[in-house]
Here is the input.
Amino acid sequence: MSAHVPLSVLDLAPVDRRSAPGRGARETLAASVELARAAERSGYRRVWYAEHHSMPSIASSAPAVLVAHVAAHTSTIRLGAGGVMLPNHAPLTIAEQFGTLAAAHPGRIDLGLGRAPGSDGATSAALRRDPSAADTFPADVLELADLLAGTPRPDGVQAVPHALDDDGLPVPLYVLGSSLFGARLAAALGLPYAFASHFAPDALEQAMDLYRRDFTPSDRLGALEAPHAIAAVNVFAAEDEATAREHVQAARRQRAVGLFGRGRLPEGVETADDATFDAAADALLDAGASVHVDRMTRLAAVGTPDDVVAQLDAFAARVGADELITAHGAPTSAGRVRSVELVGSAVGTALAA
Here is the structure.
């Protein structure tokens, strides 16, 4: 089946709300290792982790550290940030972090860059983020690219270790986005582009078209000769359709509480027993949260493995994606690992047919 495009995984590193205090993050890190191992066994191209801050339900506040941990427990799969929110950091800091990762795990490290804060205003202030930092994002990307390639800054400062692989190529950069800004920047710089359509799908088709139309190769960045467009999509694969639909509903409830529960639910609901949590979440959904949750997550492949693969193929063809990064949304770590395995197996069977 030639319709298949490469599949990758976006690990959102969710913390189980039922975890005992102090254990949630440890359990999530262990689950991320198992998910990456499953993706490696199943033929996925890469696993990415996104930078989020001050969110008790997500354990990916330090993507470089998480990448290092998972890389030490895997062998071949590419790993990276999807992404680092560059305005939160000095380009030199990120160049040093990912140069170190590339030296430790040559040929396996990616670096996706976004300009959103990955947090709220108070957290941005705690990160010492300048409110105008996003305005310099294009210049910061170029500075970071030069540092990764071993080019000193005008003041002579350079990133050590350099991030060059055995062929003299730096860690590959990806521009991330959920609007037309990122598409324009990636096209202008000749970089690959990844659209966050797993939670912000509205501008996906327009951004993809713009990126392909305006793409210009860049010798300076040692980037692509042709555009490479990645689209993110939610995936709920299970042995039977009923189980997959149950996982969708569990994800809707979790998203409703996470996005709209603050100040609207009694204290302790997030860690309550399943029946209490589900009732509270359903009340939020019925009160209007469903409109927002379902719009944000409307791009999803749901069902048995063969059905999910068919949906992914159709989605990639429709939006012109060269690669899909799949966010597996089952409510448990075991369910997410199984979803990764089922889809990988179905793709492998189809390719061999």
The CA atoms of residues 184 and 211 lie 6 Å apart. The longest helix spans residues 274-296. The mean pLDDT is 91. The chain is about 45% helix and 15% strand.
